[in-house]
Amino acid sequence: MELFAGDDIAKGYAAARPAVHRVVVGRAFAQLGAECGRHRILDVGCGAGASTRAAAPWAQAIVGLDSEIQMIRNARTVGGGPGYIVGAAEAIPLGTDTVDVLTTAGALDFVDLARFRSEVARVLAPRGVVVVYDFATGRRSADAPGLERAYNEFARRWPRPTDGRHAVDTSVLAAAGFSVGSGDQMIVSIAMNANAYVAYLMTETNVAAAVQRGEPAARVRQWCVERFSPLLTEPRVIEFDAWYAIVTPTG
Considering the entire predicted model, what is its pTM? Predict the structure, then answer.
């Protein structure tokens, strides 16, 4: 998707995304009863590799897949063990029955789910599963009670784009031909100071869309620094609402 095509957002994804993935992935693999180092894992929509690296402890072999070359380049620069390839969720460049666990975090909002389901059914090995998960933007903190109000101001100034995006939850997955098994919802708590939080917000699609419309990124960053720095003078625990579901393709 064009919003994720630039080098700036790819570098931000590589350096500034909070460590929510490892908490959610850890919970999901624990529920699966997965053994460390035993599974062939494919991470679809891997971005700059944070989600792929989070799943790596459970992998015998792991590959991150993303349609944006800049994301893959930055994932390879960070390194950390996984391999990375450019490709689409609707045309996965792997052989039949080659994946034990397919993970995907927040990427299915931009995917043709019918075509994706067909590809999942092809690449999954017998008894293979899909771990679908996502998390909302962190915006609450008991340590910084004004954070949510400030975030809402940010979201009103620079709304999240909706073109080409469809929300995905378990009901949408079921309608698209997936059998929904176990799952969970949780709050992931991450300590962040103002610099980390602003750098994270600058990777959000709100900002990418604003920059595409001609808004200078430096102006957005300056507003964020001025608004959030007084609230996060030192690391504060910020809450991220997250969920995951373990699914399999039907038919």
Answer: 0.92
